[in-house]
Design goal:
The chain is mainly α. Helix content is 65%, strand content 2%. Strands 1-2 form a two-stranded antiparallel ribbon.
Amino acid sequence: MRINRRAFSRAALSLSAAVLFVWVVAWAVGQALGLVGASSFEGEDERVQKLEQQRRETLQRVEERQEVLAAVIAGRMTLTEAAAVFRELNRSSRSFSWDIFRRSFDGASDEERHCRQVIASVRSQLELYPGADNEVVQRLEAELRTCLMRGSLRLPDPVVSTPGRTRTCDDCLHVREVPSPLGHGGGKQ
């Protein structure tokens, strides 16, 4: 059987051209997808960086809340001072839900709700320590009742208290030493 060389050459050339064409198309598509993929990765990097920043900010707020709770439990910070700090921490969070906050804590105002948030957080913190008495929670609830009986509850600007010195809710300029409810030192009222 005789093969027509000319037909065979044309077929081989056509096949080579088709393979080359498919390869070029595949290469072009791969490059296009590669560029889109690179853009996606850049967008993903930005998203990851944004999430990491939010994580760090959240951890910072958690640490600040823990410091405030420690100061409240030790008697170095009043309920209203702690509530003022909690209010600022809540405001600083982009993901804070005021609707959930208002449904979670009873109160006639957000100021009262912030106070109740502090009391609930202290109660929760003290549950971690077996044998911790409710004296601290009772003190905070009494402080809230006193402030509410006096009329409109207003939170002070957030302050940093020094150990053993704090402001009272009835007179934000009055400084007094408070005995620690955990038995760390004592002082005059």
